[in-house]
Amino acid sequence: MIENQINIILNDFKTGHYDLVIKKTKKLLKIYSKNSYLKNLIGSAYIQIGDIANAIINFESSINLSPKNIAALNNLGNTYKKIGDYKLAEKYYLKALNYSPTYINALVGYGNLKIDLQNSEGAIEILSKVVDLNPNNYSAHFNLATAYQTLNNTAKALEHANKVLSIKPDFTPADKLISTLVKYNDNDAHFLKMKLDIDNKKINDFNKIYLHFSLAKAYSDTENAKKYIENIKSGNSLRKKRSRYEVKQDVDLIGKIESSFKNISYSQINPCKNQKKIIFIVGMPRSGTSLIEQILSTHSKVFGAGELPFLNNIVGKPFKKNFSVNNSLTSFDEMANNYINQISTYSNNKDYILDKNPLNFRWIGFIKILFPKAKIIHIRRNSKDTCYSCFKQLFENINFADDQDDLAQFYNSYVQLMNFWNSSLKNFICNVSYEELIENPRLNIQTMLNFCDLDFEEKCLNFNENKNAVRTMSISQVRLPLYKSSINSYKKYEKDLSKLFNNLK
């Protein structure tokens, strides 16, 4: 009897009726409270609706009931990866693989984690095992393509991305990846395929988002400005439609941060005991943060760890839940230790670790408390160039760029908060102009290195030769020497984006 009920629930899961899955599974658990499979099933449904806390509770319960439940172990690994706790994610992936070394889902998850940890070579080694075991695993091929892309191996990235489409033609994230790797002409076969796919009613809105941004890139390459901006607008419109995002929450949060730190006397707060040499690069997305990271990580003493979620998880989440800035020093020490513990996941022998999550601009006051010896580099780019570049970008976890009004509001709040930090934390932040960096790289690189107490190294000027893995939206740009074509790039689309530009302060 339970098998029949589970099959019905699984069908609900496949059709996306996750609330029904939770409701029906709860009913069954009243009878079968010690069923590990059911605990894992309801945890999986909670993940789908974004209820991370209940997902973790049920995955842990499933594992407690059956310690060798590799599906639950893997799901718990995926969950911790999702929230940026890479240490715990690795722990549960390895537990699953210890019980079943060829368990494909855990191999895929662990391989993806290696990419997040800037270990693309390790990811390729693991994911290659997956495609050896199952040549038609499109997810593994896609992530192999991603790993090769971070290493600037375009040929291998294209090979695996095209393999994805041969297995699953409607997996449009692969179309998007391909679009970043090639330069199109009007008769390009992939370009023609995407034109047909965008009108295919069988392809859902989620997948059409990727198609719109991929087509935008193709139309840009073929110099069709009208179709280019139309597809960007269509892609963003679909994202906005599917999202529950409200910019007011971000604007209110930024306002709350400023008011919370207005009367803080940093000199009266004892520095946290755990100090590390950390460089934070902050600013708006698409303002040049990846360029700065690539320059600084070329230095012999600096390891570029990419866009880390840790600070937002450790500081942002409790702050949003009314954590008091005036909390005890114990809380701050705990936060600092937690951050250090997370970044220790990254294997490197460099003196400095570099965190380039641009949205850490929100947490500069906390950085001053947690890591008073940290170095903060803030890069600011022309407001219209920045916002245009955000609007045309398909972000994974950023929604304020989906709508012109939302983007303008968020940008204005960012400027307001950075003005506050610069006035209240003098000499703690090194402000860099993107345009000035392009115009005079040697002087500006020297200034940044001096600020970070680093000796000048000539190779920082040749940052585009840096062979380190790059996982960023700007991956293709940071592999190039400095160029000026990105300055005033917005001008061509002033009329199309007038709603955005007219609202910028």
Structural summary, described in words:
The chain is mainly α and about 500 residues long. Among the domains are: about 1-100, Serine Threonine Protein Phosphatase 5, Tetratricopeptide repeat, CATH 1.25.40.10; about 275-500, Rossmann fold (3-Layer(aba) Sandwich). Helices cover about 60% and strands about 5% of the residues. It contains 25 helices and 5 strands. It has helices spanning about 1-15, 20-30, 35-50, 50-65, 70-80, 85-100, 105-115, 120-135, 140-150, 155-165, 170-180, 190-195, 205-220, 225-240, 245-260, 290-295, 310-320, 330-345, 365-370, 385-390, 405-425, 435-440, 440-450, 475-480, 500; strands at about 280, 300-305, 350-355, 375-380, 430-435. Helix 10 packs antiparallel against helix 11 (about 170-180) and helix 12 (about 190-195) runs antiparallel to helix 13 (about 205-220).
**Under CATH, the topology of one domain is which?**
Rossmann fold
Helix coverage percent of residues? 55-70%
Structural class: mainly alpha
Biggest sheet overview: 5 strands, parallel
In the CATH hierarchy, the architecture of one domain is 3-Layer(aba) Sandwich
Strand order of the largest sheet: 2-3-1-4-5
The top level CATH class name of one domain: Alpha Beta
Which stretches of 5+ consecutive residues score pLDDT under 50?
A: none
Distance between termini? 64 Å
CA radius of gyration is 24 Å
Strand content: under 5%
The count of strands amounts to 5
Look at the structure and name the CATH superfamily of one domain.
P-loop containing nucleotide triphosphate hydrolases
Tell the overall outline.
Answer: globular
Number of helices: 25
